Backbone:
């Protein structure tokens, strides 16, 4: 097992019929969540914002193919009904059921379909590699691969599945993530740890600059492994979320390359984050990476509009990582070898490192290149 079913106390299953999928995850424990900041929050998000206040969940139901977003009171009641199907199947309190939806905005749920799918797969939930694979596949929309992560520490595990490919921008991205740990942790501590991990991972992924109506990351702790060191748990949770975030960036709609932007020498982490995300979301940077064009001036230009004060004549910029690092700018002086820079853009991952020379803080953001395929996918998304 490579993700959620490696965690003791987690059972799952999923079904996919054309564009419409359904995933059930049964796991009882303390829970926390983070949500989209889009003003147009979908009804399932509004419902979850209420339910997560109790600090525990017994199961999660997720549908793909219909976001149930901008659907008003009917959409909210449909979310309640959808969650009720799980409660009936598992004989648990309806208020303990978490919910997520992803797909086309402005369309109502097909409740008869969801009810049938739920009744079909509820008896099948189990703890197995097949179960977690089906669960991850069933929440996909334009994703090209299922996203799994597993971090194992001495005495406990943290694992997750996620979906996300387009409409990806910070706070959060168009993504759903369902994370589980067998560590025992209080709801308030879990909430703090999840928020911190999300801020450093999911909130630093940029594909196209659009923030979704349905973003959610839920973490449930079954407690089966007993109490663990809080710092160890935070570290493992961060690693798990980072893995999922990078997979989402890699799988950006139409993408051919992962872009990693590391900003160092910032006065504080917030400033480093602003610069990194501004560069990662720049269409000019993204298209240059796609064309393997060493037009590094676009990187420093994007940094300059991030709203962070620094001295342009002191910055340093490199491309590549490890033994393939090539200097582009050294303390404000142009030192680029364009042939070497172009070679550094030839792989599946392109890394830019920018030193602002203003402090000791740093941050990393992830994105992908922007291709003709992105336009093709989104130009015909509903048809």
Residues:
């Amino acid at each position: 097992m490579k993700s959620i079913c490696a965690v003791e106390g987690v059972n799952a299953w999923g079904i996919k019929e054309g564009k419409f999928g359904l995933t059930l995850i049964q796991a009882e424990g303390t829970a926390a969540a983070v949500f989209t900041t889009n003003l147009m929050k979908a009804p399932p998000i509004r419902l979850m914002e209420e339910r997560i206040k109790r600090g525990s969940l017994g199961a999660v139901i997720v549908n793909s193919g219909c976001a149930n977003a901008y659907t008003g009171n009917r959409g909210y009641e449909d979310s309640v009904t959808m969650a009720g199907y799980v409660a009936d199947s598992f004989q648990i309190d309806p208020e303990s059921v978490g919910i997520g939806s992803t797909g086309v905005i402005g369309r109502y749920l097909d409740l008869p379909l969801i009810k049938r799918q739920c009744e079909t797969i509820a008896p099948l939930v189990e703890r197995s590699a097949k179960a977690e694979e089906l669960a991850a596949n069933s929440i996909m929309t334009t994703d090209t691969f299922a996203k799994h992560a597993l971090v194992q520490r001495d005495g406990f595990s943290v694992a997750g599945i996620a979906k996300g490919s387009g409409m990806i921008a910070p706070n959060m991205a168009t993504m759903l993530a369902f994370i589980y740990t067998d560590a025992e942790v209080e709801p308030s501590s879990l909430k703090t740890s999840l928020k911190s991990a999300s801020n450093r991972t999911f909130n630093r992924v940029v594909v196209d600059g659009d923030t979704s109506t349905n973003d959610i990351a839920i973490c449930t702790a079954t407690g089966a492994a007993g109490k663990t060191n809080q710092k160890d748990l935070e570290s493992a949770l961060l690693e798990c979320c980072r893995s999922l975030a990078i997979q989402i960036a890699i799988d950006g709609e139409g993408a051919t390359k992962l872009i990693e932007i590391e900003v160092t020498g910032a006065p504080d982490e917030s400033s480093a984050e602003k610069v990194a995300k501004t560069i990662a979301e720049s269409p000019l940077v993204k298209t240059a990476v796609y064309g393997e064009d060493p037009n590094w001036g676009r990187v420093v230009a994007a940094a300059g509009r991030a709203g962070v004060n620094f001295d342009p004549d002191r910055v340093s910029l490199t491309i590549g990582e490890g033994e393939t690092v090539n200097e582009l700018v050294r303390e404000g002086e142009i030192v680029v070898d364009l042939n070497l820079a172009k070679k550094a853009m030839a792989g599946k991952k392109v890394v830019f490192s920018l030193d602002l020379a203003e402090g000791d803080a740093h941050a990393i953001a992830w994105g992908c290149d922007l291709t003709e395929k992105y336009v093709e996918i989104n130009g015909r998304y509903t048809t």
The chain is about 35% helix and 30% strand. The chain has two domains: 4-250, 258-379. Residues 4-250 form a domain with the L-amino peptidase D-ALA esterase/amidase fold (CATH 3.60.70.12). Confidence is low (pLDDT under 50) at residues 166-173.
